[in-house]
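To the wet lab folks,

You asked to see what we're planning to order before we commit. Fair enough. Below is the target structure as tokens, and below that is the sequence we designed to fit it. If anything looks off to you, flag it before the synthesis order goes out.
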């Protein structure tokens, strides 16, 4: 990867990246393509979800995911260009998720991007998936110009199926990772507890629905504060839910699903919000971004937007879960900063945001 070191990368000058980028995302179980203008405006965003396919296994089956990406990638890219009424020649570059993610899934998107880059002569840009989630906060959905643009420095919580990360973002493309999960990611905890409660996959939306009408204080599940560090741990919470279920079953009681779901959700939201606010306080940021699949959670959104001390940026629901507009959006900034990748670019399945 090459990054320009001249005038362009100095703080502030990246505020308005001039670029029209095609984004491709195949890191997990969505095959997605999108075109974004200048890091803000979505000209098209197509997502082919494999959720129904994986639901029968109760989770993501990597082999099935990569086969499905191969089937879906060409039509999805074609659709994204058609929807934007553009041809490759109208674009400035092709951004693709390089990692983190499932190796066999990542290479499908990367190879597609390389093929398009060779055929069109457009530059290739490998994008970090977590950086993509962050840049979803700059996107406006449905072509509307977004008014509320995040200000630096800002505090970002990325909560997805694979990651729970607290990041201080000092400027565009400048990150300091403050902490992350020591075991399960927040989304993974939702998925696992949903499986225990036989609520199906993906677990996040299922728990959210099951919580409706439940009492969030019915069960006092543990919160791992870890001495108020910026790391997270959800395995104790998960085990506590399992023990409670087993105890209720032993006593031959019906499982109070709404109460269990609401109490679990409450515990996880409590920890996510408190640590985010603590970090925002310590680093004196005024803006907070919450992004990634779990940021679609209604309870989490309600609690964080109820406080008035910080300006909170949460992407619209369609941009919380995996999509390619976020990859194209981050791609606009990377393109403007001078990043260009060669055809030797390989998948980076474990690429941490602290390496950026
Ligand atoms: O960002 P994402 O689409 O994929 C990854 O990068 O991992 O996140 C998927 C995760 C899943 O674990 C899913 O259960 C969770 O996001 N999720 C939710 C909700 N919608 C999706 N978790 C809680 N509440 C939701 N409404
Ligand atoms: Zn994701």
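Sequence we intend to order:
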């Amino acid at each position: 990867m090459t990054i320009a070191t001249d005038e362009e990368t100095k703080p502030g000058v990246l505020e308005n990246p001039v670029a029209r980028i095609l984004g491709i995302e195949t890191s997990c179980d969505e095959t997605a393509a999108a075109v974004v203008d200048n890091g803000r405006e979505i000209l098209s965003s197509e997502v082919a979800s494999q959720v129904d396919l994986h639901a029968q296994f109760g989770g993501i089956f990597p082999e099935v995911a990569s086969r499905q990406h191969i089937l879906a990638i060409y039509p999805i890219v074609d659709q994204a260009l058609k929807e934007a009424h553009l041809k490759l020649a109208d674009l400035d570059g092709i951004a693709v998720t390089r990692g983190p993610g499932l190796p066999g899934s990542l290479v499908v998107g990367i190879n597609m991007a390389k093929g398009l880059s060779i055929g069109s002569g457009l530059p290739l840009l490998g994008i970090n998936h977590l950086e993509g989630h962050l840049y979803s906060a700059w996107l406006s959905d449905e072509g509307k110009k977004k008014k509320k643009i995040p200000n630096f420095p800002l505090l970002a919580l990325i909560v997805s199926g694979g990651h729970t990360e607290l990041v201080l973002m000092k400027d565009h493309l400048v990150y300091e990772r403050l902490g992350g999960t020591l075991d399960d990611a927040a989304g993974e905890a939702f998925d696992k507890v949903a499986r225990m409660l036989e609520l199906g996959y993906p677990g996040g939306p299922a728990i959210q629905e099951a919580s409706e009408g439940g009492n969030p204080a019915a069960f006092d599940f543990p919160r791992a504060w870890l001495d108020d560090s910026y790391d997270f741990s959800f395995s104790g919470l998960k085990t506590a839910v399992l023990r409670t279920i087993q105890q209720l079953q032993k006593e031959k009681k019906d499982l109070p699903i709404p109460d269990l779901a609401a109490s679990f959700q409450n515990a996880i939201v409590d920890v996510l919000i408190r640590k985010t606010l603590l970090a925002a306080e310590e680093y004196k940021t005024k803006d907070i971004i919450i992004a990634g699949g779990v940021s679609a959670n209604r309870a989490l959104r309600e609690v964080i937007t109820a406080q008035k001390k910080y300006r909170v940026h949460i992407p619209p629901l369609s941009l919380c879960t995996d999509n390619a507009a976020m990859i194209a959006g981050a791609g606009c900034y990377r393109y403007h900063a001078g990043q260009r990748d060669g055809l030797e670019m390989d998948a980076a399945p474990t690429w941490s945001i602290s390496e950026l």
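Structural context that might help your review: The pocket of KG4 (ligand 1) is lined by residues 28, 160-162, 187-188, 190-191, 202-205, 208, 292-294, 296-297, 321-322 (CB under 6 Å). Confidence is low (pLDDT under 50) at residues 2-11.

Thanks,
Computational group
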